[in-house]
Amino acid sequence: MTAHRGFLERPDYRVDIHARRNLVTVRLDGTLLAESTRTLLVDEQDHGLVFYVPRADIRVPLSRAEGFTSTCPFKGVATYWRFEGDGGEPLVWSYEDPAPQVARLQGHVAFYQDRVTLRVGVATPAVSGR
Q: How many CA atoms does the CB half-sphere of 2 hold within 13 Å?
């Protein structure tokens, strides 16, 4: 595995990816956008927590938002997505060809959590840790 540019410059930088079984729902103005018990929780140093939802668990058709891209030195080039009723700005992004260190993100999308309602429920069966 070849180190991605960001990891070469900052080898101690953390991008931790945790599989979660909790029911995660994403809504916009009451419309269910996603529902999944197979999310990835990304805990990236210098960032807030972000849930990535498998593309198969998205409940609205997505189309590529032309002209919108960004690059993360640790994850790669982000592709942005639109859906009907998104308010004119893309609310969804993905890493179609993620850096090898975060390859698990392929096939998942994330939502701007400050613009949608994302709820985390319990896992079934719930594990109490006792």
A: 4
Per-residue model confidence as pLDDT tens digits over 68-123: 989 999 999 999 999 999 988 899 999 999 999 999 999 999 999 999 999 999 88
Distance CA 5, CA 76 (A): 9
CA distance 38 to 62: 19
Residue with tokens 């909790």: 22
Q: Which residue in 108, 83, 84, 112 sits closest to 94, CA to CA? A: 108
Helices (H) and strands (E) in the chain, counts: 1, 10
CA-to-CA distance for 77 and 70, rounded, in angstroms?
A: 6
Q: Is 35 helix (H, G, I), strand (E, B) or coil?
A: strand
